[in-house]
User: What shape does this take?
Amino acid sequence: MRQAFWYRLLKLIGWDFEGELPASPQYIIIVAPHTSNWDFLVGLIGCYALGEKIHFLGKHQLFIPPWGWLFRALGGTPVDRSQCNNLVEGASLLFKHNPHFKLALTPEGTRSQVKRWKMGFYHIAHQAGIPIVTVGFDFNIKKIIIGQSITPSDDMAADMEKIIRFHRSIKGLYPKEIPDFKN
Assistant: This one.
């Protein structure tokens, strides 16, 4: 019933899905390009429309009163980006302790243009032995596009080429260049 409501809401605002999430009980979703705060809202409605509980990491400033409780209830975990805090190891443990854990991340880590993606998502997936699912919110065609599932291999460059190729086909709300992996 609740899932149907969210799916109807997604359709009402003009959005739809292309592709499907994998049947795997655990994975990391990487969403790019991240160009607007609307990405979060579209993604949240999309998760509920799919009936999936997908967690996310957010800058710690989002988790202070008065809204902190809401972001936690929505599946968020605060991250203080000013500190070096072995996020890869911590996130890997979340997967090890919860057999149905799913995590969504934006590899840019910000809505601004970046010269290089943060590669923590890849290292988390590799360390936890889980697939990476490519997802993009294409504002030109108003579709949440779910791409391929990639299990990290020993050839990170080849894996990243597939991931970047997919994300370069997505048109965010504001134009933004997806950086090369080797920058």
Notes: The chain has a mean pLDDT of 87. The helical segments are 2-12, 38-50, 68-73, 87-97, 120-128, 156-168. Residues 38-50 form the longest helix (13 residues).
